[in-house]
Amino acid sequence: MEVRVKNLKRYFGKTRAVDDISFSFSSGEIVGFVGPNGAGKTTTMKIMCTMDEPTDGDIFIDDTSVVQYPELARRKLGFMPDALPTHRDVSVDDYLDFFARSFGIKNHVRRKVVDDVEEFTNLLGIRDKFLKDLSKGMKQRVSLARAIIHDPHILVLDEPAAGLDPRARIELRELLKALAQQNKAILVSSHILSELAEICDSTVIIEKGKLLRAGRLDSFDTSDLPIKRIYMRSLDPVDEFYRTLLQLPKVQRAKVVGSGVELDLEGTDETISATVANLVGQGCKIVEVRTLKDNLEDIFMNITKGELN
Ligand SMILES: Nc1ncnc2c1ncn2[C@@H]1O[C@H](COP(=O)(O)OP(=O)(O)OP(=O)(O)O)[C@@H](O)[C@H]1O
C-alpha cells in the first residue's frame, strides 16, 4: 500500500499553510514529518485523514483519492491527533469499545478486538480507569489504541511524543516499530528530532508550507547546505592547529576531538578546498580531511530558516 501526497495546497486566506507539497510512503515504512511551528504538518495530516479538504491537489491511498472517497480512506487510516481524549467519566475500556462500534466491528468479535488492542498498547491493567484520572503517557497510549482499533493499514500520528517522559517515549517508539513490522505505513510528526531519526526510515522536512527535503536521511544531498561539518587532523600539536583554524574567517565553530579538530565551515565544497590550501600555505602539515555526515538535527537547523508562516 502506498500513500501519495500530490501537489497538495491548502490556503487559509493569504496564509499558504500547505503550498504544493508532494511526497510518498509505503507499507512497513516509518516516515518522520518534521518542520518548525506553523510549517503545515497538522494541516497536511488533517487532509490525509479526511478532516479537512485541500485548496488544490490530492492525497491518494494506492489509487483512491481521499478527497473523492473519504469514507473509503477513513477505513484504511488511523489518526492520532495531538490533542488527547478529555471525556471525563468514561473508562478506557468503554472509550475503545465505543470507537470499535463506530467502525462497525460486530458484537461477537468486538470484545476480542478491544482486548487485543489493550494488550498491545499495555492498557489491560488500567482499562477500568476513567480517562480523567490518567497520566499523559497513559492517555497517549489510549489515543494510539483508538487510532488502531479498526486495524488500519496507515497510521498518522501528530506529535505523539510531545510531553512524554523518557520511559514513555521509549515505549511509544517500540510500539511504532512493532506496528511497522505489522506492515503498516506510518507518518509521524515530531519536534524531537533525534528521536525521529532513530525510528524513521525516511524523513519529510517542510517549512512555511513548502517541501524542503524528502527521502532517506542517509541519501539527503547535503552538498548545497550552507554549513559543512569537517574533521581535520595535522601533524602539528593539536592545540596549535585548533588555534590556527579558529582564526580562519569561514570557520564558525571548532572543537578538539582526539588528535584532530571538528569544525563547522561556512561555504561550499570550494570553500573546503580553499581552506585546506590556505592551511598548507601557512605550513600546517595536514594528514586527514573528512566531511562528516550531518544528523537530522543538523540538517533541520541548516535548511530551515525558522521563519513563521
Ligand atoms: N483553520 C485555520 N484557519 C486559519 N489558519 C490556519 C488554520 N489552520 C492552520 N492555519 C495556519 O496554517 C499554518 C500551518 O499550520 P499547521 O498547524 O499545519 O502547522 P504545524 O506544522 O502543524 O505547526 P505546529 O508544529 O506548531 O503544530 C499556520 O500559519 C497556521 O496558523
From TrEMBL:
The protein's name: Putative ABC transporter ATP-binding protein YbhF
Pfam families: ABC_tran (PF00005)
Keywords, ordered alphabetically: ATP-binding, Nucleotide-binding, Transport
Superkingdom assignment: Bacteria
One GO molecular-function entry: ATP binding
Domain ABC transporter positions: 3-233
Gene this chain is encoded by: ybhF_1
Homology family: Belongs to the ABC transporter superfamily.
